[in-house]
Amino acid sequence: MHPIRPREGGVNLRFGLLGPVELHRNGRPVPLGTPKQRALLTALLLEPNRVVSIDRLVTAVWDAEPPRFAVANVRTYVNRLRGTIGDGDRLTARQPGYVLAVRDGELDVTEFADALRQGRRSLSAGRPDAALRQLSTALTRWRGAPAEDVPRSAALGPRLDALTEQRCLALEALAEARLMLGEHADAVAELRETVAAHPTRERLWGALMLALYRTGDAAAALAAYGQARAFLAEELGVEPGPELAGLHRGILNRDPALRADPQAPAPAAVTAVIPAPGRLVGRERELKEVVAAIGAGPPRPVAVHGPAGVGKSALARHAVRTAAPGFPGGVHHVDLRALPRPGPYETLARLLGRLGLADDEIAADLDDALHQLRTATAARHALILLDNVTGEEQVRPLLSGCPDCRFVVTSRRMLAALDDVEHLPLAPLADDAAYDLLTRLCGRDRVDRAQAGRVARLCDNLPLALEIAGKRLAARREWTPEAFADMLAGEEHRLDLLTCGDLSVRAAIDLDYQALRRSGGTAGDGALALFHRLGERGLADCGPAAAAGLLGSDRRTASAALGRLADLRLMEPLAPGHYRMNGLTRLYAREIAPTT
C-alpha cells in the first residue's frame, strides 16, 4: 500500500485488494469490520464505478444458502461501509443495487492492470528495458493473495482467481524482459522462487530452463525440466506441453537458436506488425477460448467467424498478442482485405514479405513458396494471423503446407470445408458489455444504463456500430445520449449516423453484399433476388415458405437461397426454418433494393 497525502479540504481514499483488503483514509488504515463486510467491499471494488446488483452482492457475501433477510443485511452492511469510508457520496444506491465511486490512483488493482498493460505493450514493441520497469512497478502493488482475508464465495472466487492469473502473466512477462536484456543470472534467482510458488505454470518453467542454459548450466536446465514434468503429472495429471517439451529437446541437442545473442532481434519485437487492436470489451470468455485454442495440443488452426462488425479482427489481434510470448518465431499478420487478388499465392507472398524476403526472392510457384515458408519458420515456432478470409481456397495450402506454424483465421462465414480446424463463432455483445463499451468511449457520466441500452439495441449490440456511436457522442458534446438515440430511431438516417471517419457500418455490410453479387449458380442468384425482395418490403424474418412466395419458387430453391444468405452472414438462423436479418442489415437491404 502506498499512502498519499490528503487533498486540501477533502478526503483521500486508498483501496487495496492485492493482499488483505485494505482501506486508507487520509493516509491512515481504517478497520473494515467483519468478514462479510469485507466481502461486500471486495465485490464493489471488483467492479468500481459500476452498479453491482443486490443479488450479486448477496451471492458474494453468502456462499451457501443466504439467510431469509439477506437483502436487509446487505443494506445494513452498506450503511456501515458508508460510515467506514467517511466520504458520503462514494457509495450510493442505484438500481438495481449500489455503485462505489473510485477515482484514479485510489485502487491497487487498477494501477496494477495499467502497469501490466504498459509492460506487455513495451515487450511487443521490442523495448524490454521499459517493460522491465513497468512490470516491476506492476508487481510492487501485490502484498499477498488477492483479498486473502475474505472467504472465497462461489461469486468472488473466480474473480479473485482471475487477478492471480494476471499476476502470473506479469511474472512471465517480467522473466521474458530479463531474458531479452541478457540478465540471465538475475532471472534464475527470481524464477526459482517464482516457480516454487506457481509450479504448474509452464512458461515460468521454460523461462527458468532457458535462463539456466544461457548461464552455461545445461544440467540444471534439464533437471528443471524433470521437476516441471513431475509437478505437472502430480498436480494436473498431464505431460508438459509442446513448447516446453520442444525447449527440452533443444537443450538436449544444444540448439544454436537457444543461445543468447544480444545482436539478434528480440522475438517479441515482431508483434509490432500486428496492428493495435484497440478496445476489447465484454470478450473475456472468448479471448480465453481463443488463446487456449492457440496453445492447446498439436498445431491446429483456430478460425473465428461471425457477422460484419462483430469484432472478429479485434479479438484475434488481442489473442495473438496475448499468446505471442510463447512463439519464438514471432507473430505475423496478413490482412487479406488489403490484397488486390487475395488468392493463396498472394497471401503466401505477403506473409513471406513479412518474414523478410524481398519481392524478387519469393518463388513464383506456390509449392516452392510454401517450401520457403517452411524453411523460414523451421525450428522457430511461429504464430500467423490470416485476417478477413473469404473462402477456404485462400488459406488451405498454407494451413496444410506448414504444419509447424500455428494459424489463426478470421472470416465472416464459417470455413466449414477446412479440415481439422477449431471453429469459434462470435456473437454480438451482451447488454452489460455494450453499456460498458459505450461508457468507455463517451464517458460514464454522460449516459445512464437505460439510454445506453436504447442506443445499443439500435446498434444491434455490434461492437463496430457501438464504437462509432460512442465516438460520435464523445465528439459531439452538445448531443445528449437521449437525443442521439432519437436520431438513430429514425431508420432513414441510422446508417448515415453510424459512420465516423473511415469507420462505417454501411461499408462493412456492403462487403457481404458484394460477395453475394459475385456468387453464381441457382442458390446465389436466388439469394440475391431474395435479399432484394426482403429489402423492398422491409422484412427481417423469413422462412422457406415465405421465401418461396417472395421468389415465386419451390421451397427447395427458397431454402437454398436462405442458406446462402446465412452463409454470407446477411441473415442468421434462429431455429429450423426461421432466419432473421439484424436491424442494420435490414436497413441496408432497403437502401439497395431495386426501385422498379
Automatic annotation (TrEMBL):
<keyword id="KW-0805">Transcription regulation</keyword>
<keyword id="KW-0804">Transcription</keyword>
<dbReference type="InterPro" id="IPR051677">
    <property type="entry name" value="AfsR-DnrI-RedD_regulator"/>
</dbReference>
<comment type="similarity">
    <text>Belongs to the AfsR/DnrI/RedD regulatory family.</text>
</comment>
<keyword id="KW-0238">DNA-binding</keyword>
<dbReference type="InterPro" id="IPR016032">
    <property type="entry name" value="Sig_transdc_resp-reg_C-effctor"/>
</dbReference>
<dbReference type="InterPro" id="IPR011990">
    <property type="entry name" value="TPR-like_helical_dom_sf"/>
</dbReference>
<feature type="domain" description="OmpR/PhoB-type">
    <location>
        <begin position="3"/>
        <end position="102"/>
    </location>
</feature>
<dbReference type="InterPro" id="IPR005158">
    <property type="entry name" value="BTAD"/>
</dbReference>
<dbReference type="InterPro" id="IPR003593">
    <property type="entry name" value="AAA+_ATPase"/>
</dbReference>
<dbReference type="Pfam" id="PF13191">
    <property type="entry name" value="AAA_16"/>
</dbReference>
<dbReference type="InterPro" id="IPR041664">
    <property type="entry name" value="AAA_16"/>
</dbReference>
<dbReference type="Pfam" id="PF03704">
    <property type="entry name" value="BTAD"/>
</dbReference>
<feature type="DNA-binding region" description="OmpR/PhoB-type">
    <location>
        <begin position="3"/>
        <end position="102"/>
    </location>
</feature>
<dbReference type="InterPro" id="IPR001867">
    <property type="entry name" value="OmpR/PhoB-type_DNA-bd"/>
</dbReference>
<dbReference type="InterPro" id="IPR036388">
    <property type="entry name" value="WH-like_DNA-bd_sf"/>
</dbReference>
<dbReference type="Pfam" id="PF00486">
    <property type="entry name" value="Trans_reg_C"/>
</dbReference>
<protein>
    <submittedName>
        <fullName>Transcriptional regulator</fullName>
    </submittedName>
</protein>
<dbReference type="InterPro" id="IPR027417">
    <property type="entry name" value="P-loop_NTPase"/>
</dbReference>
